[in-house]
């Protein structure tokens, strides 16, 4: 006999990712102030809204002025369409097996679909016939990323196929910038030159292109000349601009846990796998039940601080030793008044005394692990409960 094992009750798990939709709304609105009236804003809510919850992020972004939503996978687009949101949806990443299953319903729901190869275009055409609905197609052009997208010399063939198929409608053309987070890199202008040339050839085949879009978060912030008909910010909407900016953006996720154990150790006491750290003085260590299985990057071990909320006030404490699967150790200091049950802020907005210490950011954890805040946010695992603030 099989005995079912119940899922973890989130009320009994100490780790919590608090999501503030108002931050996403305000960030979207702030990004919108950079745009001319004719330029629309697509909120990229792929990867479950960068770990914030896709529907939560979508609704918050729409409240902030987004009129488009972007997701990688058609199944995500279908979930958005079923939520009856007041926004047009674009999806761009599919392979033959899932395309044949889900694309007909996606197209029937009015979702726009990107294609990046003749084979992908054929899949969309087949799905449109099954749905008995003309597909709105955005042609993805590879201008140097080397991922999804047709190469410039394939443009006319793709355009001719689109023009001759009554179930296909050329709605847009787009590309993805490789280096927009480095405004000094000439690659961006080189890509734009290729894109414009490809769009001219595409328009020769299909007529005027209603939507041209290039700008991601970085280009939206730094290159108003690339805003065109539509911009596609992602990470900036969640409070982490990829370039320096004066646009007011604030993080939408705060990751917290609680101290499980506090103990005093002498000088010379080793901490963690591989004895990565050894104490240089008598101190008090705190054990926090969160680790790399919850999304903390093991590569960032021993390089970042947390904020501990004690009865006597907030105190920063370094994470010490190797990050384990389910736990980390923090050095509270010999005189710390921290106790088991005290709240620990890994990153985000801790609130508290405006003049007091602040929590680390996803940028800090990314720097510690040698990665980017995108990965930090999307790595917060499913076993960390999300709490959406009202």
Structure commentary:
With 390 residues, the protein is of the alpha/beta class. The protein has two domains: 21-238, TIM Barrel (Alpha-Beta Barrel), CATH 3.20.20.10; 253-388, Beta Barrel (Lyase, Ornithine Decarboxylase, Chain A, domain 1). 29% of the residues lie in helices and 22% in strands. The chain contains eleven helices and 19 strands. The protein has helices spanning 21-32, 46-50, 54-63, 74-82, 96-108, 118-131, 155-164, 187-206, 217-222, 362-369, 373-379; strands at residues 16-19, 40-44, 68-71, 88-91, 112-115, 135-140, 168-174, 211-213, 230-231, 253-258, 261-265, 270-271, 277-278, 283-288, 305-310, 313-320, 328-331, 343-347, 385-388. It has a nine-stranded mixed beta sheet with strand order 11-14-17-16-15-18-10-1-19. It has an eight-stranded parallel beta sheet with strand order 8-7-6-5-4-3-2-9. The two termini are 44 Å apart.
